[in-house]
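Standup, Tuesday
Yesterday: got the pipeline producing structure tokens again.
Today: sanity-check two examples.
Blockers: none.

Example 1:
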Amino acid sequence: MNTIYRFVAATVFAAAMAVAPAAQARMSKALNDTASTGMNAIDHVLQKPLGGPVYEQKRFGDHLFISAGGAISAYGHRPVDGFRPGLQAEISLGDWITPVHGWRMNLDGGVHSRFTGEDWKVFGAVSADYLMNFSSLLRGDNPDRRVELIGALGAEYQRIRYNDLWGNELGLRAALQLRFNVQRNFYIYVEPRLSLLAGTRFSDDDMRRFRPDLSFNIGLGYRLLNKQERLSGASQFDCAPDDHLFFGVGGGAWAFTRNGSQEFRHPNGFGSFFAGKYFSSAAGLRLKGELGGIGGNGTPHRTLAIGSLDFVWNLNSAFGGYRPGQVFDMSLNLGPVLAYAGNVKGNYYPGAEASITALFRLTPEWGIFIEPEARMFTRKFTRELDACAHGPFLSVSAGLRYTIGNFSHNHPESYADFLKARNNFLTFAVAPSWRRRGDYGTGFVAQAGFGKRVSPLSSWRISARGEVFSQAPNYMSLGVDADYLLSMSTGMAGFNPDRVFDLSAVVGVGGGIARRSGLVRAMVEGRLGLHGSFRLSDALDFYIEPQLAANTMLNGSSRHWTPELRVMAGLKYKLGTSPGVLSGLAAGRYADGRNFVSLTGGPTFFSSTFIDKPHHLSGAIDASVGRWFSSVSGLRLGYTADIITRQKSKGKRPYIHTAHADYLLNISSLMDKNPARRFHVIGILGAGAGFSNLSGSLPGLMLEGGVQFRYNLDRGIDLHIEPDVSFYPNRVVISYTSDTRFVMIPRIMTGLSYRF
């Protein structure tokens, strides 16, 4: 026995001596340092268990995370023939108390699965989960770990709508989340989840009181880094190489959420444009406009316009510090929204919206985005636009986003080229146009404008525009447009005046007067487009500009926005740098010929109002004498005889005689001091007195405006084309135009001038 005792004692002593160094080494580690020691069951048998990993100076919310995703689900059904899976979306917010233990709150919504022929069950849910990070539990806390396995246990409440009835469900749920950390603050997750629910049983529902809900979720998430992690490698917001302005253009589809046997109606397309600015690294504002159609499949087609002002929360910066160079960026947008719908009783509908914008950067300035969005309006919105609709109004869009960067830093050579280039320009374009609503036929648009490239990236343009459509209700309009052009080619590759092709984005507004079905009213318009310019020479470009516009006539009982597509094609004449309005005459073609006489003639279009009958194609001749006081300014005096086509019911042909004085502004010389120029664009503004040969007519004041395109031939002879329009009071031709207040005579005059 003593021998046995001695053997046992020796064995225990030897084992103790062997374990002591390891235990001493292990005890030299911090009690919560499982990253170094790992998980060892002996720690829980031969000594006091080591503590789990903890965060030093833990505060509430300092390890916050937020995630959003979607799922397909099976709600009490087996996936056999006729099975239709459910669809749902979720957003979660949580916090890690320790590297192992945490919590999250969740909002879910969607539709439960069903079989063919059954109605959808629409639901919204709120839930709370306890989280355990098995990777941190077994292998210690490691912020650089790429893959983590996380378990969740929680409770869930659902509010369900089925066949216009409401019900409630309550239950427990369990999930296992596999998380892949793309970067320290951004992760992708996959999460199978099982919920066991009990609650309301609907009258024609064969579901049991206790029913399982199995779902497969996938999504994205952000986790908040601590202060040291956020500052490491981050940029200073105030010192960033951009001014935090961003713009975007895109398009997508939107649809109502449906009850009954349909989930969504057939989606309709829309276009969008937004502009915004970040005021801090994580927070900004965004103004967005969208225009598209809604309707079909049994409901009328209508125009739908939506405007919103969103608070933008940049999740990249909020959770990981300001890093503008990261390839992937995501933001959460929340804000008020106002919708306008045509041909409905209410027209305007307020609401609220929430969306997530995922951005993939191609360059520091350019990126591609996708944005799912949900909006909630008052019940009036769905009732008046689609009586079968309910719930949120959903959309998804994709497009291109541009952030104004430090152009001089990225392309320092561009400014030298820009200052030497021809940056003032004139544009002349025509286009066919089509209206989405109504049978207007094909339209015709003519536009003339002038503009300036104020930086290598930005240009502005002011244009006069006229438009007419071929069929009833005989829509016509005259207006002035203001456009902003952003050169995407220059933003990506720098300024190059010799570039063969330059692509710009266009956004603009316009206003004027329009006539439809005999009514003349004020008109406003907004539009988006692209401007593709092909270089023909140093001074001349050919451009194509597709535009998507929406316009409306004001002060009408049935006012609505009408979408319109135009494809403008025209010429851009580049003038160069302005010499100033007071520049004198240079030695050139005007120096030896300030005085001139001219003779012109051409067709006219007489109208009792802008387009009301009678319409008569007529003719006119004009003789003028004038003088140029400088290369920019001149004056002419003249006489015009308009020969109006005779009405069938009248026996006398009207003649209108006009004496006029016009101020001439040479726009070409105003913008580009070039004495050798042969081609000139001259603006005309004048007034005079007119009278006719009709009985009972009285003299009246005439006002006119136009533009002259003049080409200098040799020996002081000039050839010119002059479109203009004159306005007369009704008293001049009162017996010819009934009770209208004024008449207008547009003319296209062609002639010759002689300088001496």
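Example 2:
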Amino acid sequence: MSKAKTYNKGVESGLKVVQKIVEQEVEAMDYLKSKVDLIVEGHDEMKNAVDHLVEDADESAIASIYGICNSVRPNELKDHEQKMLINILATLSALGMNEDQKKYFNNLRHHLNIEGYEPDKSYDFRKIESIESVKSIKTIAKAVRIYLFLEDSNMDGIYKHEDDLFTYFVLRSVDVDEIDAIIETIYCLFGVDGLVEFYGDFEESGEADERNFTYSNVEEKEYIEISNECAQIYFKNCCDYDKNMAYIESSSYVVYNEGNNILCIHKSSGIKRIVLENVEEAGKFIREGKIVTYQDMVYYVINNDLFFINLGSMESGKICHIEEKKDDQGELYEVRRLMIYKGEKIIYNNGYQYYILDFEQGKESIKSFSISSESGKCFMRGDYLYYIQMDTDVDDFKGKGIKTGYRLKKYGILNDQETNVSEAFGKHDMMDGIKALYELEAEGIYADKYFCVFGYQGVLSPERVGFDCFYFNIDSSNAEPHSFYLWNARVFQIEQYKNYLIYVNADKGYSLVRHDFAENKKKVLLKNFGETEKSSFTDRLFFGKSSFMKPSEYMRLGKWLWIRENDKITPKIISIC
């Protein structure tokens, strides 16, 4: 929309509200009133009327304009209502704010009677519904809508929050229109400064919430569970199973890919925004660990440059350039599998080596180490990295081929020592070195337990025909492997959520199963989670094919599962626990 049309729209809607209040204040108002009906005929005519008003109107007239729909000032709200207002704005400001919004926020904070109150920057907007007073909710709504209008000096900043934040404001549409008309009128009459100084103009140096965040100075955050509202937004555009979607969690946000962009959603408020744009294969970028979180900080690497972003303040910058490593053919290795140790060190994989980079007053010192992880992955807990290592033993005398065993091991981040956590476990003889028959299918760590699942397949079929499963209490001096069992059947899509494994059991009627591996307790979350296809007697006899051929797939976000039932067109979201 052109500036002229925006100007006309604001004045046209706003002056219809202010006309009766201001028409008795000064003679200029009579002139202004006579032009209301001519607004649509030309921008210049209206501009002259406004200029006349601004030149001649006295302070009482302007005060009347500023007081419209403001029977309650923010500083007259109850204490808990004032705190709600400042919490809403603090949460919005955590998404990033410009200089106009910053000044407005500062002015409003001084206007309120809650000096010394530290606002909640992760506020649950659902609490807005608890306000019963219509006057109070209108006052809060107006203050918030002014803040959002200042994002781009138009209504766009307000409109993009109509479906999340403002759904919790119980107001009539006429009340909302009235508030917006005033905002646009003030903007047209007095410009940005009129809105910035709507609740006063306070100068302050060294604001308490202005902190110099860097990649090595990380604010502690309470971990927030992912809400259903957040899951609804994450899965909003998923009509079919999307194998390219991936996510990681920070304390307060879900960081995920949408196309070639990486976004974040606040776990409780549901507000989302773009973190990185135009990232090649963004889902793979997340899955390979080229981006990682610690508290509400994001660290990522692009073209061997290591960067950081603070998701609260959106402060960002480059940390350093990571030295390139090449393979035998001269190709560059990709830096990946980033991990953060207590906000002090970053650990990453670059080729065959892992590296530790220290954050110390802007000085980076790097050391390297090697671990022989079966999957190439390792998991951090405390001061150690845990991983599964394969041991092989060739028995030439008996000619029985290769015997394999596995150990859970750990590497000390601070002491550089590699030690065994468990004795050898999961041994299998494999003739002629056919290692592919027995592979690490899933592994992970939760609290003091490390689990691993090995799948093995038939000689004539690539399908898994069985699993060996173990977990270990890693705080033990010599952790004993505890066996647990999946269904004695073909199992697909094994994922971990805390102490649960989630998977699809094809041979049990396509059950979607939740499995507590420490207690070895299973619960069927959904039956018939797949399509049946009858096979011939010959196929079943000679090729081992059963009637169940196509299990369905689920998508997961924390404890929330996106599923599509066979007889349903629309997918739905269910909770694991």
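Quick observation on example 2: The radius of gyration is 31 Å. The first helix runs from residue 3 to 22.
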